[in-house]
Task: structure prediction
Amino acid sequence: MPTAPLLTALLLANLIAFALFGMDKRRARLGLRRLSERTLLLWALAGGSTGALAGRQYFRHKTRKQPFSTLLWLIVAAQAMAIVAWAII
Result:
């Protein structure tokens, strides 16, 4: 399996997830229409969980929001287990 395209896709997903957290925070401050939590979580699920966590901390956005926080951490845990399983196989 070629790793370069996979790594490129993961990097892109993480950059997009990070940027979306920043964009949503800015829109919240300006009182504009917000991105849905579903959109943010889907980008995390698409491989951007590291970017989502980094954006969440950097922009201090959605750090206490429930059930969003729980769902984001479940995605992170599932991806971590998938990486471990892939490494074992």
User: Anything to note?
Assistant: The helical segments are 3-30, 37-58, 68-88. The two ends are 13 Å apart (CA to CA).
